[in-house]
Design a protein that fits this description.
It is a single chain. A hairpin with a 2-residue loop joins strand 1 (9-15) and strand 2. The chain is of the alpha+beta class and 306 residues long. The strands form two sheets. Strands 1-2-6-9-8-7-5 form a seven-stranded mixed beta barrel. The protein has a two-stranded antiparallel ribbon with strand order 3-4. Among the domains are: 9-30 and 88-173, Ku70, Chain: A, Domain 2 (Beta Barrel); 187-201 and 245-259, no CATH class. The chain has seven helices and nine strands; from the N terminus they run ββββαββαβββααααα. It has helices at 81-86, 124-137, 177-180, 192-203, 216-230, 248-255, 273-293; strands spanning 9-15, 18-26, 67-72, 75-79, 94-102, 111-119, 139-147, 150-159, 162-168. Helix 4 (192-203) packs parallel to helix 6 (248-255). With LigD forms a non-homologous end joining (NHEJ) DNA repair enzyme, which repairs dsDNA breaks with reduced fidelity. Binds linear dsDNA with 5'- and 3'- overhangs but not closed circular dsDNA nor ssDNA. Recruits and stimulates the ligase activity of LigD. Homodimer. Interacts with LigD. This is Non-homologous end joining protein Ku.
């Protein structure tokens, strides 16, 4: 059971005829980010947001604010907040597993928000049996539940000592990849270019370690705030240099360490030892053929002019 954080949701996890109490805890949060308030420069006071009528420009108090769906330019169907609330299905506080699917079939483009799923009070044995069974079978679970006032599809996977539940985007919310990539040129890279790309990838292989990811923007904001508090000069942003190689093959060779940075490179493929030997053999054969075709100095001596 997670400690130090308040559960976002509590209910039951059901698979088959087995159920156990569970709790959802936020796995990712932006609460640690630096945030700013809007301030009145003249007074130094914080600015409050006020809703203004778009036509009369008069302030609209909260009790007069409602929802509306635009059906035409400037024409709205008024929908009261109570009517919106009535459309929310009643929650039975149950994550009902619909199916188990191979982990490899999950396309993470549908991932929305991750939550840690832990056993809550009773039902630890059933929870652990499900977790270990999913690990052994290398499967994920598709479940449905009313979470945060909406019916949501949730992907459940083993994660450390517990489970991780990720809310999923609906199919209509995910844009088609075909449209995104329809302007991609039809190119086929092979030969030395492909070999160099594979070599660079092999030399850059590593392990996934989120601790190495640094939020440079957040660090720069913290440095800025600190400098302002201490009355120091503002830090100068580091200049980002973007390389613009005019020759892809030359850039690949440089990245692979085959040539020094900035050195002039020949975009033609390098000659191997075998190619050099073949070239030398062809040159000797050419010289031999030329000598046979040319008239000999002994067989046709020059005559002196009379």
């Amino acid at each position: 059971m997670a400690t130090g954080h308040r559960a976002q949701w509590k209910g039951f996890l059901k698979f088959g005829e087995v159920s156990c109490g569970v709790a959802l805890y936020t796995a990712a949060s932006t609460s640690e980010r630096i945030t700013f308030n809007t301030i009145n420069k003249a007074s130094g006071n914080r600015v409050n947001r006020v809703f203004i009528d778009s036509e009369t420009e008069d302030p609209v108090p909260k009790e007069n604010q409602t929802k509306g769906f635009e059906i035409d330019n400037g024409q709205y169907i008024i929908i009261d907040p109570e009517e919106v609330a009535a459309t929310i299905p009643e929650s039975n506080k149950t994550l009902d597993i619909q199916a188990f699917i191979p982990c490899a079939e999950v396309d993470d483009v549908y991932f929305d928000k991750p939550y840690y799923l832990t056993p809550d009070r009773m039902g630890g044995d059933a929870f652990v049996a499900l977790r270990d069974g999913m690990k052994k079978s290398n499967v994920a679970a598709i479940a449905r539940a009313v979470l945060f006032r909406r019916v949501r599809t949730v992907l459940i996977r083993p994660h450390g000592k517990g489970l991780i539940a990720t809310t999923m985007n609906y199919d209509y919310e995910v844009r088609s990849s075909k449209k995104a990539f329809e302007a991609m040129p039809k190119l086929k890279i092979e030969g030395e270019m492909l070999d160099l790309a594979k070599h660079i990838i092999a030399t850059k292989k590593g392990e996934f370690d989120p601790a190495t990811f640094d939020d440079r923007y957040e660090a720069a904001l913290a440095e800025l705030v600190k400098a302002k508090m201490e009355g120091k000069s503002l830090p100068k942003p580091k200049k980002v240099e973007v390389s613009k190689p005019s020759d892809l093959l030359a850039a690949l060779r440089e990245s692979a360490g085959l040539v020094k940075a900035g050195a002039a490179t020949d975009s033609k493929p390098k000659r191997t030892a075998a190619n050099a030997n073949q070239g030398a053999t062809r040159q000797r054969a050419t010289r031999g053929a030329a000598s046979k075709a040319a008239p000999s100095s002994r067989s046709a001596p020059h005559r002196k002019a009379s």
